[in-house]
Amino acid sequence: MIWLYHFFRIDREPAPFERFIFNWIFVPLSVLGTVMIFVSSSLGRSECKSACIAEDYVDFLYAPSSNYGLKPETCVCFTEEEAIRPMGMQGGTDIWK
Hints:
The protein is α+β, with helices and mostly antiparallel strands. 51% of the residues lie in helices and 12% in strands.
């Protein structure tokens, strides 16, 4: 196990293959994953908005899936009476159930 100490030391200069792995594999995958999360959330929000407008609701609330997909995404549409209530979270119709 002592050989791991030399491999994981922070005070040494990284080897060329370590730089390659970091620059060309880890960083692009991290950026791609972040962009995919934002694009997915944006597409779901616009889909929720268009579905609520198509069904003649005046307001909507979109919640993307969370916890690695364990909690499904929800789209709650509000009528005029439900939209003027404080907090806007009471009532509503979940159209993606």
